[in-house]
């Protein structure tokens, strides 16, 4: 772990990821929660973790264990004595709150907030997000230090997110906001191209011939309509060439007599 | 646990919320995780929790404790013996996977996936999302039962979401997609709704039985792989109930002996 180049930590190749917002935990109580926060961040390419007076001290073995393998985030975490110190190098700070507050600050949803974060980052600004204590969140004074408030669209009748969950959602939304618009599904399956029409038509003919021999088209004057439905059904999926080949094998097999030695 | 009135289970007063996707946990191991899943769901107005063979049994006091106060989700959870059973009343099923898979299924990001879920719900369809085991996720056969795959835009160098985190993200995105209030541009609701999974699975069984009797699965040790491919192929088109009925008629017909008086 190279602690002299914090901007590279865990961010992979993409410089944009390395520029993600700092995650600032204010007086977190449980090491486990800090670990789960690190894990959440690492999943979405964030690595700048800042701790303001963690109750049970730092470093924390419980945090490391809960972080799964997000050691780079745990190792790179920095300690501060106050929120003011923790955000001193930032230019745009969001405070997460669970409840609405008497405040004149602008309140954003996560999506709008991460859009704003990206905008600021694009302009070379450093940003951060404050998360409060497990028990009572952020004090009014701490919220007062932030530029804007971000809150989650939770069901008002059941609002109960812990800090690790809140960090997970913001980290996810941060990553999602980069993908939005372009949305390159990273794991997109190699979409097999549809079979040629010729392949498809030979499948139709094969099937229709075998069905015709078995009296499928009844009454005969409805043959055309039924064929049309069948073809529509077989066209719908855009079957690939291997899929068409498999279907022809299925037809060949089904029209055979069951043989000894096959499954019962 | 009331297994006799599935449609009422745990749904709150709000009809829209009650229409959210079912969350299906496949062989979850730890009660704590199930509880955290319930808590995540409750935050975002989801309540239809389905458990396929939870390892440590059900009900679970650990689950209840971890659920915070999401008792309505825990109390309404339903138990199933298989994924097939758990999704039998649904018409659109997403499988969450962490890794790319050799599959011809369409892969969506969470945002796109929840847009699709809303579209389907708007058309009166019932949907669900499958989440795999803590250790190794979903089997290929289980993924094969789903219509499409949803995966998270995680950092490829650190992909480590547990099931509670994955459920939290999908639940959040579900809520966020309603807040966005915009529908995906691409297609309007499908003309005929897809058949229920139960109908589809009976088609699978019918076809596989007839093929098995005719030695289609060769060599026998490849049976599972071939079945998987077949099912993927038959799932792809999102066949409607009349289409599934037609396909079953096709199978019945093909497995008959050609008779006199039929077409030549």
Helix-strand blueprint:
The structure is a homodimer of 264-residue chains.
Chain A: H1 15-18, E1 22-26, H2 31-43, E2 49-52, H3 61-66, H4 71-76, E3 78-80, H5 83-86, E4 92-96, E5 107-108, H6 110-122, E6 127-131, H7 140-145, E7 148-150, H8 163-179, H9 197-213, H10 223-236, H11 241-254
Parallel strand pairs in A: 1-2, 1-6, 2-3, 4-6, 4-7, 5-7
Helix pairs in contact in A: 2-8, 6-8, 9-11
Class of the largest domain in chain A, according to the CATH hierarchy? Alpha Beta
Oligomeric form of this entry? homodimer
- Helix content class of chain A: 40-55%
The chain pair forming the largest interface, with residue counts per chain, is:
A-B, 75 and 79 residues
Catalytic activity (chains A, B): cytidine(32) in tRNA + S-adenosyl-L-methionine = 2'-O-methylcytidine(32) in tRNA + S-adenosyl-L-homocysteine + H(+); uridine(32) in tRNA + S-adenosyl-L-methionine = 2'-O-methyluridine(32) in tRNA + S-adenosyl-L-homocysteine + H(+)
Protein name (chains A, B): tRNA (cytidine/uridine-2'-O-)-methyltransferase TrmJ
GO biological process, one term (chains A, B): tRNA nucleoside ribose methylation
EC number (chains A, B): 2.1.1.200
């Amino acid at each position: 772990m190279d602690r002299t180049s914090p901007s590279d930590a865990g961010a992979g190749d993409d410089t944009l990821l390395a520029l993600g917002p700092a995650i600032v935990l204010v007086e977190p109580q449980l090491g486990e929660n800090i670990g789960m926060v690190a894990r959440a961040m690492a999943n979405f390419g964030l690595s700048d973790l800042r701790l303001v007076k963690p109750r049970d001290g730092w470093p924390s073995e419980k945090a490391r264990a809960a972080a799964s393998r997000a050691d780079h985030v745990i190792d790179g975490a920095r300690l501060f004595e106050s929120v003011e110190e923790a955000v001193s190098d930032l230019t745009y700070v969001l405070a997460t709150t669970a409840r609405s507050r008497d405040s004149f600050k602008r309140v954003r949803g996560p999506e709008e907030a991460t859009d704003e974060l990206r905008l600021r980052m694009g302009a070379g600004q450093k940003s951060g997000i404050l998360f409060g204590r497990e028990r009572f969140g952020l004090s009014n004074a701490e919220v007062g230090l932030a530029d804007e408030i971000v809150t989650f669209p939770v069901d008002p009748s059941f609002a109960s997110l812990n800090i690790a969950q809140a960090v997970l959602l913001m980290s996810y939304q941060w990553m999602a906001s980069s993908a939005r618009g372009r949305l390159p599904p990273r794991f997109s399956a190699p979409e097999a191209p549809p079979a040629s029409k010729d392949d498809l038509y030979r499948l139709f003919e094969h099937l229709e011939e075998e069905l015709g021999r078995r009296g499928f088209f009844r009454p005969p004057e409805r043959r055309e309509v039924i064929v049309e439905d069948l073809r529509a059904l077989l066209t719908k999926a855009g079957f690939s060439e291997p899929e068409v080949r498999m279907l022809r094998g299925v037809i060949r097999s089904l029209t055979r007599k069951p043989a000894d030695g096959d499954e019962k």
